[in-house]
Amino acid sequence: MSRLRTIDLTLIRTFVVVADTGSISAAARQLHLTQGGISQQIKRLESFFNCTLLVRDPGGTQLTERGTDFLPKARRLLDHSDSLYLDMTGMVGTRSVRVGVPYDMAGAHFAPILKSYAHSHPDVEVTIVTGSSIDLMNDFAKGLVDLTLRQCPASEGVGERLYIDPLVWLSTSDELLCQRPLPLCFVTPTCTFRKTVFALLMESHISWRVVFENASVDTTLSTVRSGLALTPWLRSLVPDGLEEIGVESGLPMLPEFAIELYVSPNASRGALEMGEAIRQHYR
């Protein structure tokens, strides 16, 4: 029988921090180590498993296929280790939950959920990861978030459906409706509304151009308020001072979108309870 080797949890923890922060330098700051020390620990871990887990590029670090597969397993190992230590010592530790929330839902919309959860789970540290639904689902698949909300066309949803919301046009200028190409703005280049909007405009023989994208909800809405562009928005999230455009505008009617919840099958108790808090909010 071959002798099993013992995994160094320090190396595992370093790998997870590098994966979460996306760079050696950021991980070094968080762990109070030198960049060289971080790199050496990653090399030792890769040597232990005889595979490459991370690659460095000008944008930081990227997980390899083996690294992506290993990340959720590494998280579970650290969770079990931390739980065992707390159980054996009787200490009260701080649990953590990483939840993905689409940009347009992360502010006032998600605040009541976060407040309710924080009130009933004061020992849990919650990290909100914002992004487009497409980016958040990629993070979820890589194990970078424990659970995530997703917006998608109601006809295409495959997750746990929480709510159905019509997608509507927002504009403060009637003059824009006649402009061709139609000026549009989106929160991000990976906005989940883009594909649907472009397809419907094409079917209606309406040309368009994208005038603004910068991953800022506030700036996107300011662009609309300034009369520079239109944007598609979920009706329940339309802020005060803005109103949807009706069918009399001549623009195609937009479809309903679903808000879905995805929870990792290996989620911690804190993440499962966050999922339940989100469900309760939508009920």
From TrEMBL:
Record PROSITE patterns: HTH_LYSR
Keyword hit for Transferase: no
HTH lysR-type domain residues: 7-64
Pfam families: HTH_1, LysR_substrate
Record's keyword terms, sorted: DNA-binding, Transcription, Transcription regulation
Membrane-traversing stretches: none
Span of the signal peptide: none
Annotated PANTHER family: HTH-TYPE TRANSCRIPTIONAL REGULATOR LRHA-RELATED, TRANSCRIPTIONAL REGULATOR
Record-stated family: Belongs to the LysR transcriptional regulatory family.
This protein's name: LysR family transcriptional regulator
Species annotation: Pseudomonas folii
Lineage, top ranks: Bacteria, Pseudomonadati, Pseudomonadota, Gammaproteobacteria, Pseudomonadales
